Amino acid sequence: MRLPVMKALCVAAAVLSMGLHVDANAGPVAHFDFITHAPDSDAWWNTVKNGIKQADEDFNVQTDYRNPPNGDIADMVQLVNQAAARNYDGVVTTIADFDLLKGSVSRLKAKNIPFVTANTGTEKQSADLGALLHVGQPEYLAGEEAGKRAKADGIKTFLCVNHYATNPLSFERCRGFAEAIGADMKTSVLDAGTDPTDIESKVSAYLRAHPNTQGVLTLGPTSADPTIRAVTKMGLAGKIWFATFDIDSDVAKGIKDGTIKFCTDQQPYLQGYIPVAMLAIMHKNHNTDVAQARNELEKDPKFMKRLQDYGLKPVYEARNISSGPGFITPQNIEKVSALAGMYR
Q1: Taking a C-beta distance cutoff of 8 angstroms, is the pair 88, 31 a contact?
Q2: Is the Cα torsion angle 10, 12, 13, 14 positive or negative in sign?
Q3: How many angstroms separate the CA atoms of 200 and 222, rounded?
Q4: Contact 69/247 with Cβ under 8 angstroms?
Q5: pLDDT average, residue stretch 116-137
Q6: In which residue ranges of the chain is CATH 3.40.50.2300 found?
């Protein structure tokens, strides 16, 4: 009797071992699409991509990152249409232009494809589109908080250097800042474009034509880096009040040498990681219970380690997850700069 029993146990163990082996080497359990409005030239999005990549690794999923090469919103609309046609397990999209995107996003909803919005767009727009949640930074609030710091320094006039004026929500950063210091936004915004040489030239020309400008606000490294060169060549580095959104190596250097007061940080890594992680957890649970997924994510050991390693702090709300605003200053720049452009 013992021999058959032992034989059966051995067979069972072998089968179990084979099953575990298959699971360990199985392919991704879900396939997602992450669509943004960003042009290929905008290196800031590399941090978002790193968040996506590491979420894929941590949750054993595959995410396609797709964007219009030139940042054309009409092309982005087509990418969302394609996502609906391809029947992804889930989709993440930015809301670069609510009116242009709502038709294509409705196709996702019609096909019951769960989707999350990230980065740009308001929480209300996200809810109106039918998204499960939004992961991003409230743009007006971020501008307003930066403006409060400027007001405390006595700033009353400023230039807002907008390198992505094609995105209507970009102006919310300028508006929040302007209203915080009591300035007229309409006369304070420069549509700078994305060419570095043009941005430097336009900023220099504006400051020469408006010598009483007390402060400069740039909306990201694409406009910050050329503006650093402009104020440096004009002898204004460290003299004109200067703050920016988002960080790269040049911005980090500017904070260290006193050219830039601070950087408003929306923690872009989280905008890549969290949407993918939330979709992965809900896919595993076979539901779209955001609260349940969020509770699991908050306790996930791999995610917790990522937060600790990179010094990141999301803010969990009832429906949405805010990635910012935070502030990078001379006091914390050393810790952050080593990770700038990769995970911060």
Answers
A1: yes
A2: positive
A3: 11
A4: no
A5: 97
A6: 31-137+267-325, 139-265
308-331 confidence digits (pLDDT tens): 999 999 999 989 999 999 999 999
Report pLDDT for 25: 58
Other beta carbons within 10 Å of 292: 13
- DSSP letters of 215-245? EEEESSHHHHHHHHHHHHHTT-TTTSEEEEE
Q: Given the structure tokens 């999301």, which residue do they identify?
A: 314
The token duo for 248 is: 């790269």
Helix axes 45-59, 301-310, angle to 10 degrees: 150
The identity of residue 243, as a single letter, is A
Give backbone dihedrals phi and psi of 282, rounded to 5 degrees, phi first.
Answer: -65, -35
* Model pLDDT, residue 227: 99
Spell out the residues 6+ positions from residue 247 whose beta carbon is closer than 8 angstroms to its own. 221, 263, 265, 328, 336, 337, 340, 341, 344
Helix (H, G, I), strand (E, B) or coil at 68: coil
Fold of 139-265: Rossmann fold (3.40.50)
d(CA 238, CA 259): 4
Q: What fold characterizes domain 31-137+267-325? A: Rossmann fold (3.40.50)
